[in-house]
Amino acid sequence: MYTALVELFHLLNRGVDKRQIFLDNQDRARFVHDLYEFNDSRSATNTIRRLPPDSPEEVLFDLVGRTSVREPIVDIHGWCIMGNHYHLLVSEKIDDGITKFLMKLNVGYAKYFNERYKRVGTLFQGRTKRIHVSSDAHFLHILHYIHLNPLDFLKGAENWRALEVGNTKSAMAYLDTYRWSSYLDYCGKKNFPSIITRDFFGDVFSNYKKTITSYLKDIELSDVKPFLLE
């Protein structure tokens, strides 16, 4: 039913040798900015080319959503930044939109990272992994799964995939403090709303926080494990 309405792809890439690629909030802010800036059929604006690698996160936040005219090549339905990898949930708006978007995103971020940390060589482990969301079961799991990933950082909740969360209330409170995903925007808290297309999942999950809390209490990853990229 759902997969007939939109063709979704779950994307993941991580650092070469599983190295950390987001070392501080400035790195995360830069990647958030790039998610917005590079999602355009046209070349990146002069603004991003002028941004020095040490641009403070406040400057980057201020630029997200400022471009008045854009031609997005993908719809980003969900995203999450972790320490050594990122997750995206996207659908294409133009032919080969995902490939074009990832080329700009990965090359652009790697160039920034290498310049900032004075390194050379490949940053990502290879081509971005992608998997087609081809069933309703997968569809109903995947956005929650992406948004729950930050629980890997919370002591006592690291084994959430095995239903070993500990305190669900504490886990959800932690997610409320983690701004490096689309979770807060789905919960109605303005974070980086310009990045995502929220209408589709917003209609499916009308009360997102209630839905994901129930999901965390009764998660059954065996239903979706064959589809996961990790």
Automatic annotation (TrEMBL):
Gene3D superfamilies: Transposase IS200-like (3.30.70.1290). InterPro entries: Transposase_17, Transposase_17_sf. It comes from the Bacteria. It comes from Candidatus Kaiserbacteria bacterium RIFCSPLOWO2_01_FULL_54_24. GO terms for biological process: DNA transposition. Residues 6-149 form the Transposase IS200-like domain. GO terms for molecular function: DNA binding; transposase activity. This is Transposase IS200-like domain-containing protein.
